[in-house]
Amino acid sequence: MNASKVIAIATTSDLATPEYWSQARTHLMKKDRVMKRLIPQFGETSLQTRGDAFVTLARSIVGQQISVKAAQTVWDRFAALTPAITPPDVLRLKIDDMRAAGLSARKVEYLVDLALHFDGNKLHVDAWQAMDDEAIIAELVAVRGIGRWTAEMFLIFHLMRPNVLPLDDVGLLNGISRNYFSGDPVSRSDAREVAQAWKPWCSVATWYIWRSLDPLPVSY
């Protein structure tokens, strides 16, 4: 099976779970001793998508360089400013109100640029499901405030791509350090070596590494 093409999802409430999750768990527990220990600790919980590309990218921007808890607090204040988080709604917001919600001036600029890209149809949203990971990353990083890390979060949390390894993610490196190297610092090269056993389910393994550091599920 070509894992990169598995995009079907099973709906649960307003979120959705990738249908490949069970298969990925089985593979990872068979191939990796750490995953064999970690995965059973978190029961049936899994990666979930909100199904809204703009909201996922906006949440990723809000969450840059702050903790999961802080990001949720700022997002809740930001979301309270408007009836819905859509590009037109964001473009109607006042900058002072966005700043008062806890967003930095730079993040306000990024959110506005993101809204302009969506509102002006500058992104090939309808083609994303058929595009490979690197092509989508290349398109997204043209938006101000979206670097490779944010694009990779989008691939994982919105498009549910199963084999993304976000080597710029501090949490991933810290988690690999703690779970595989007894807390010693690890390099990107070390992380790549560990992840060889995870393929073709690096996104799933990364999610469990994040959970090993923070019991609160990561969500964008």
UniProtKB/TrEMBL annotation:
<dbReference type="GO" id="GO:0006285">
    <property type="term" value="P:base-excision repair, AP site formation"/>
</dbReference>
<dbReference type="GO" id="GO:0043916">
    <property type="term" value="F:DNA-7-methylguanine glycosylase activity"/>
</dbReference>
<dbReference type="GO" id="GO:0032993">
    <property type="term" value="C:protein-DNA complex"/>
</dbReference>
<dbReference type="GO" id="GO:0008725">
    <property type="term" value="F:DNA-3-methyladenine glycosylase activity"/>
</dbReference>
<dbReference type="GO" id="GO:0006307">
    <property type="term" value="P:DNA alkylation repair"/>
</dbReference>
<keyword id="KW-0234">DNA repair</keyword>
<dbReference type="GO" id="GO:0032131">
    <property type="term" value="F:alkylated DNA binding"/>
</dbReference>
<dbReference type="GO" id="GO:0005737">
    <property type="term" value="C:cytoplasm"/>
</dbReference>
<feature type="domain" description="HhH-GPD">
    <location>
        <begin position="62"/>
        <end position="214"/>
    </location>
</feature>
<dbReference type="InterPro" id="IPR003265">
    <property type="entry name" value="HhH-GPD_domain"/>
</dbReference>
<keyword id="KW-0227">DNA damage</keyword>
<comment type="similarity">
    <text>Belongs to the alkylbase DNA glycosidase AlkA family.</text>
</comment>
<dbReference type="Pfam" id="PF00730">
    <property type="entry name" value="HhH-GPD"/>
</dbReference>
<protein>
    <recommendedName>
        <fullName>DNA-3-methyladenine glycosylase II</fullName>
        <ecNumber>3.2.2.21</ecNumber>
    </recommendedName>
</protein>
<dbReference type="InterPro" id="IPR051912">
    <property type="entry name" value="Alkylbase_DNA_Glycosylase/TA"/>
</dbReference>
<dbReference type="InterPro" id="IPR011257">
    <property type="entry name" value="DNA_glycosylase"/>
</dbReference>
